[in-house]
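Hi everyone, sorry if this is the wrong subforum. Our group has a chain we'd like a structural model of before ordering constructs, and none of us has done structure prediction before. Sequence below.
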Amino acid sequence: MCFVFRRLCVGKMTAQEVRLCALLLREHFGEVVEKVGTHLLRSGAQNLRTIIHETGISLDLVKKSLCVLMQHGTCVYSSGRKGPGSPTEYRTTYDLILRILRYPRYIYTAKTLYGDTGELIIEELLQRGHMTMSSTVKTVADRLTQNMEEGRSMDYNEVTSAFSKLVETHFLQRCPPMMATTTTTTTTTDTATPATPATPATPGTPAAPPTPESFPDCYKVPHVTLTGRGKRQLSSEDGEDQRNAKRAKLDSETHGDEGIYWQVNFERFHLHFRDQAIIGAVANKLDQTSSEIVRTMLRMSEVTTSPTATCTKPLSANEIFRSLPTTYNIPRPILDQYLTLLVDDPMEFVGKAGESGGGMYVVNLHRSLANLARATLESVVQERFGSRSARIFRLLLRKHHLEQKQVEDFAMIPAKEAKDMLYTLLSQNLVQLQEIPKTPDYAPSRTFYLYTVNQLPTARMLLQNCYKTVANLIERRLFETSNSKRLLEKSQRIEAILASLQASGAEPEQLTEVEEMITASEKQQLESLRLHINK
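Answer:
Right subforum, don't worry. Here is the predicted structure as tokens:
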């Protein structure tokens, strides 16, 4: 539920976020990019000269690092804050970098919706940042062909169709056109690589992702002249020259989409995750039919509802009834009963906005997320401190402010136990204590001590704990990998030898002899290492 917390907790960058961002940058792009990215996180928008001076990195390496960050959408640039003619400034924010944590989920979602082809398209774009449509189609077709049986290959048209579907559903979008803010920009960015410029009207602020309103062709698929099928990769060393020649030939070919680059629309994926969280919560709270009704309402309002709206556009019961899947043969009176049940539910997933058309209904997006975050907080308290502490926590969420005696009475828990539980929750910052004095001297005998729960700070604290946990796991994995580097290299060499022997049809005795090159203790160490790495 970290996604739900992130939608609610938007505030100043913390030390845990900087630490996690630094680890992610080092793991994916190397130490130099990590140093430049972390410096921008801590210092804010800076020009090229300042970055070089304060980091002590050479001009060439800083330029390359900025290009890498902009290529992957983790850095934006804008005209200088001092006005026209001032040096271009570069900025990065933690939320752009933390998207790396969700890369596996983006890929899995594409696989679920569009199969293996959609999965590989998203994977390629995430790995390379920006690509043209023709280049993506060729690469994905070749990868799919490589995994097919001998004699079969993937048609470019099938990959093109999957790419077009991803664009139609806004999971992919065009990169905004390159707009050089000053002459400095042309010297620090690669003209062949699209970047994400900040909005010129607000220099020095992070750029928003392109939207159809600001960029009319954002979701327009160009006409690409691309025919053929995927090709298998040559495995022999003799074919290296042949591969280089083919690559040079392909680079010189034109397909009609030169200069049009595509990127992953992360905000669209986040909206999909939000909708799935709400649908899953409805299914768990009520039943599958209720979740299908909410899914239909969300699907109908995908295009008409703004990403930042608190609720969807109103939909009539007649429209919902006509849009339900044919597999759900729900009579109209039963649908009305389900809608009434959803409106009356305490989680407030659905609200009623009018009576016309058989009743106008909306999905309460923000309220649903707030209630999901609240339910997650309750479950965290129950898992860590037990059901009685969760009962007290739930009571304070519902009643807002209670004295210790009132908590004991309402929760029906003995005074000593209630006192211990409240102090435990207070020490963990899950519960807050508010003092209301009767007199200005704050005398304890003339002061009310009320316990309360501030949901947003508590959710923010748990989110920071999640960041700390992820950072600790990454550091542990790096430490384990560094300590066992020689063993891992030995294991990889043996696996490569086994693969080549199996491909050449070696005898089983030869394979066994190679496998015995790793001792039993080394195998045990490898299993333990893989267990730590895969956490």
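For your construct planning: The mean pLDDT is 80. The two ends are 18 Å apart (CA to CA).
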